[in-house]
Amino acid sequence: MLVAFSVTPIGTASASVSGAVAAAVRVVRESGLPNRTDAMFTTIEGEWDEVMAVVRNAMLAAGQGAERVSLVLKADDRPGVTGTMESKVRAVEEHLLR
To answer: N or C: which end of the chain has fewer CB within 10 A?
Structure first.
């Protein structure tokens, strides 16, 4: 499955949340699951239980020192299909070349 998620700590002393987001991304990268981070979301690919555990741990990491944490999550679950983080983008790029 693919999961794209974004975490935002709320109630921190600073207007910038980049440090908290970096803590969440660090959790994702240390998980060993295929992942990609862009300006708005981090996407992870893996099995349901392992992906959701990483999202939970990333959310907890981002929330250190915050009163609460906002989580936005979008999931695409296609059992038995892997490599979709790359293949979905490749399919769109192929259409753009036509």
So the answer is: C
